[in-house]
Amino acid sequence: MNISQEKNKIRQIIKERKKYMTSDEIRKSDYNIQQNILNTEEIKNANTVFCFVSMKDEIETRPVIEALLKAGKRVGVPKCIKGNNIRVYEIKSFSDLKKGFFGIEEPLETCIEISPEQIDAAIIPCTSCDKNGNRLGKGGGYYDRYLSDTKFHKIVICRSNLMFDEIAVDEFDVAMDLIVNEEEIIRR
């Protein structure tokens, strides 16, 4: 089995695991992950934070974004662009978002782009990850392309029951610096 097949197999297993999670389990998991993220030194000390805007099957990030904005931090969210790439734009409230590519909420055209050099920490989604910071996304490579030459803290959030002991990686996969789930914060 090649790496691509291994990744697809894990995606299928995760899809099955998600089916058995109750809405109460999801809510509790989201809350604990949100609290853990906001309590990391990397986020507390950051001036500019890049955070994805969650979709319905992902860990809810709106409370995190809200808390960051309330704390006076500069918040950037991703926008998908041609060539399976993303750029990060500053939002000042949720009214700066609209439905975009794949139905993902993304920044309006009037939002200001934030360069990777201006970002102190990033909160990154995953389908699954392992404790070594290896992340499995949805397969488009958007985040790996963006993160490949960055210096900021890369923080992946994942439910503990969706984590694997080992995620297969290829040369383009970018490892995360921190793994945050509802039970712990793991630094590599």
Write a compact overview of the structure shown:
The chain is α/β, with parallel strands linked by helices. It contains five helices and twelve strands.
Return the structural class: alpha/beta
Name of the CATH superfamily: NagB/RpiA/CoA transferase-like
CATH architecture: 3-Layer(aba) Sandwich
The Rg value, from CA coordinates, equals 16 Å
Q: In total, how many domains does the architecture comprise?
A: 1
**Span between N and C termini?**
28 Å
What does this 3D model show about the protein?
- With 188 residues, the chain is α/β, with parallel strands linked by helices.
- The protein has one domain: Rossmann fold (3-Layer(aba) Sandwich), CATH 3.40.50.10420.
- Helices cover 28% and strands 24% of the residues.
- It has an eight-stranded mixed beta sheet. A two-stranded antiparallel sheet has the order 4-5. The protein has a two-stranded antiparallel sheet with strand order 8-9.
- A hairpin with a 5-residue loop joins strand 8 and strand 9.
- Helix 2 runs parallel beside helix 4.
- The longest helix is centred in the first third of the chain and has 17 residues.
- It starts with a helix and ends with a strand.
Summarize the SSE layout with pairings.
Elements lengths: L2 H17 L3 H16 L2 H4 L3 E4 L10 H9 L3 E8 L3 E7 L5 E3 L5 E3 L5 E2 L6 E4 L3 E2 L5 E2 L5 H6 L5 E5 L20 E3 L4 E3 L1
Parallel strand pairs: 1-2, 1-7, 7-10, 10-11
Antiparallel strand pairs: 2-3, 3-6, 4-5, 8-9, 11-12
Keywords:
188 residues, two-stranded antiparallel sheet, alpha/beta, eight-stranded mixed β-sheet
